[in-house]
Write the structure tokens for this entry.
Amino acid sequence: MSAGTIADERSDAAVVEPESDVRSHTRLWQRLARRPLSLTCIAYLVLLFVLAIGAPLVAPYDPFHPDIKLRLQGPSAVHWLGTDDLGRDTLSRLIFGARTALLASFQSVSFGAVVGITTGLVVGYLGGWFDRIAMRVADVMQSIPAVLLALALIGVLGKGLGNAMLAVGVIFSVSFMRITRAVVLAEKEQLYVDAARVLGLRTLSIMLRQILPNISPPLIVQASIALGTALLIEAMLSFLGVGIDSTQVSWGAMLETARQFQSQQPLLPIFPGLAITLSVLAFNLLGDSLRDATLPTGATAESSISRRTVAPFAVSPTSVHRPEAPADALLAVSGLTVAAPRPGGGSAELLSDVSFHVMRGETLGLVGESGCGKSMTALAVMGLLPPAVSIAAGSIRLAGTELAGLDDDAMRQVRGRRVGMVFQEPMAALSPVHTVGRQISDAVRAHTGLGRRQALARAAELLALVGVPDPHRRLQDYPHQFSGGMAQRVVIAGALACEPELLIADEPTTALDVTIQAQVLDLLMDLRQRLSMSVLLITHDLGVVADACDRLAVMYGGEVVETGNVEATFSHPRHPYTAALLAAMPRGEGVGSRLATIPGRVPPAWAWPQGCRFHPRCAHAVAACRQEPNILRHGVRCRRADELTLTDAR
Amino acid sequence: MRRLLLTRLLSVVPMLFFVSLFTFLLVRLTATDPVAQILGQSASNEDRAEYAHRLGLDRPLADQFLGWVGSALQGDLGNSLYTNLPVAESISDRFGVTLSLALAGMLFALVVGIPVGIAGALRHGSRWDRLLTIVVSTGLAVPSIWLALLLSLVFAVTLRWFQVIGYTPFAESPLLWAWGLVLPAIALGIHTAAVIARQTRSAMIEVLHARYIQALRARGLPQRRIVLLYATKNALVPVLSVIAIQMSVLVGVSFVIERIFAIPGLGTLLIDSVVRADFPVLQGTVVVVAFVVLVVNLLTDIAYGVINPKVRPQ
């Protein structure tokens, strides 16, 4: 659900991505055209090109014509942007300067691209020694600053813009080579190149026909940014007086003039500086837009979601009538509805009318397939919903205190102190660059007044409690020094820092080795007993529920469809989905027999079907199921619960 | 850790050798004849030959190169063809100046770039973030030379807060030294600050979505502590590799900034040697600068090891 689903959608989009080149290119231009910013950049650059090409026609004056009487003028009707120290027209010099700037940029970038891409293709494809030598050379080149290399080459080859830009091109070729090589290495492994090889295409044609179209997007982006960089370097070299000769005008050389005379005419540096900045900015922003446009669509959809926020908590928690949880329940969730903005606009309910409770000392199993809203429910209880997702209605009470609608500061007093949480992948739940001792002791210190040393001692106690051998020494270790099972014990220790009343364990054993799973589950059950906690155990594994839970709540499509005692529910499921889950549960006795599966898959939140959300996959659905949604009645959300006899199919 | 250090340290040696060879070949194979440059067109052939012999330019190339390497190892980088001053001495006089400037630029870039990147990431997608993104894109596009001119025009020429040109050595007055570096460092560091801000922002956005950040929140840690201590350290790992590359850029651009503020660093020496085809100076400067960049890269690698325990050999 939620962040998970969005991410899944994105990866789906990424999988579909390799498409025919023609299509992706037209799409690219369409996407670019839809952004006003990239259109502005393109328009500016086109204008610059037109001015550069048509400079002799467009420019009002000869850029070299001196007029000593009108030197260092400010803007006027005669000279729109004023004049320089020799009385030459600034506007005309700017227009001719565009020629130099664009010519120099394109010279260096095309030289760099041709040399770099060719080398990259060759060394990437051939690999071995070619590759190693080329990469060493690239390292050497990168240890010499670009300006230094350009200056050195000019020193050797003689002054002049051509030489200067050749030098800059040499530098660019390194980055083009690196990108090409990286893409070639990745693409080389792909099936289609192998397929082409089998078809008998020669190596060269494979490289050109198959790989080249696929590496063009990153290279176009790189070229666009390199053009901006080249423009900057040209300005710098001309500024130093080693670039252009006397027949050329450069924005950089205009800045050098400005350096000498700016105390007399402060406007002198403004226009060439602006011209450089705007042109570089246009190339850079165009590069960024190209980069964004070549990304899979899902990625942009996600960022647009995170920009919007839903008004939090619109409906008062008491306004909806709910089946009452027992008054002494530790956690009572009722009528919980959680909504998120949809990719296309509007909002979607990720959770609808979720109600369940956990008694003190009890373990409740929250079960269902992936995408049913189990984790989202846990995050809602913790007050850790993703930014755009919010509680739209319902109530979450912890020992009688309402949690829904609490601000983050107030929730912080609940998180870690009264409710602890354990996550699916222990390695992902620990910061890789902080010691384990630091992470656990910080959790201790967040809720107690303990000093650093005392908190570390407490952390060692906690590690001992969860069965990590040699706890004092291991406090200094980093997460990657732990095995998966040990890392999960560390995460559990962090969650237990303040002996919470409720522990939420979100698929705590799923990512672990089968042999370790039972150990971690036993540890949890043992800790529940010793610390007299309640546990909300989220799992898709009914075997785990059978082993560890007192009661269960089954979720489907963001709703609770059945709750009850584990034994009773296992022997007499009342909802068809529960029955289907039970039927799909692997058991020791049926070795070799075919495992029953539930046909179809859980739809995403914005595509819940009308009526009962399970009806498209339900074997018992009738016409009414397709139209009218069900409500949770006597612990089951099925209108046919009373008439159906759902026993285990086996 | 020690082994990592040692292998990285050793890898500098062949890199330096190749940089030297590369520059040497570039200079000797493609260049115009320095003798003709110095003596002029009118000199007789005997004079030229004698002069070339005096400079050792008539020896075989390999001989010349190995000779250069041999004396370079003893700290002798030859003498300038023009001033006849020892190159090593000229470089060491100016080396500290260039290093001060480059490090000051880096300091500015880090102090500005990292907080700006973090600020954008924390309010990812907000109006504030979009504004910062525009500022950062502009920072990437502004030419340092222009910024230097404008800063000097406003703060030195007009407001007279700073000297317009010149440099005070650290030994003379640490305070004036630091004050004098402020404007050059800002002009020099702005581009790098923008690069670092960009990198920090994207690294931080990724880190803030990480599960361990959620886990820290689930343990009830204050948001400020999570951001400052946990997220930032994780986000800095990829930023460090950018810093290494940027150091080389900063050294290069510092040559141009020197010129504007009349700071006597390696840049002036280098540009003069380029204009006059003074090969020993050119060669010496390139190798020394490459050496500095390699050392900075090495230091960054070590810092990388300190901040990211995974790359430390067990």
Notes: Confidence is low (pLDDT under 50) at residues 1-22, 297-321 of chain A. DSSP finds 24 helices and ten strands in chain A.
